[in-house]
Design goal:
87 residues; alpha+beta; YefM-like fold; 4 helices; 3 strands; 17% strand
Length: 87
């Protein structure tokens, strides 16, 4: 895994992307501190796709519920969603 500075990454972005397409990973640094990683995109597992679809459906159901009652989201609802997200 190669490490390159931000200026060099901007200057040679096309080359770095081509290398990522070939499976390489590159760490990008700013002031010698790692700040990003350029990696090839891998296949997304069917389980992850199903999990994301389930989350989207849940958010859509909440939106339909809010629209049906005709009111805005309350602070209590937001707090509950935050607590649910932390579980």
């Amino acid at each position: 895994m190669e490490t390159v500075g931000l200026f060099e990454a901007k200057t040679h972005l096309s080359e770095l992307v081509a290398r990522a397409e070939q499976g390489e990973e590159v760490i990008i640094t700013r002031h010698n501190k790692p700040v990003a990683k350029l990696v090839p995109i891998g296949e997304v597992s069917p389980e992850l796709v199903a999990q994301r679809l389930k989350a989207i459906e849940a958010m859509q159901a909440i939106g339909r519920e809010i629209a049906a009652r005709g009111g805005p989201v309350t602070d209590a609802e937001i707090q509950e969603w935050i607590r649910e997200g932390r579980r």
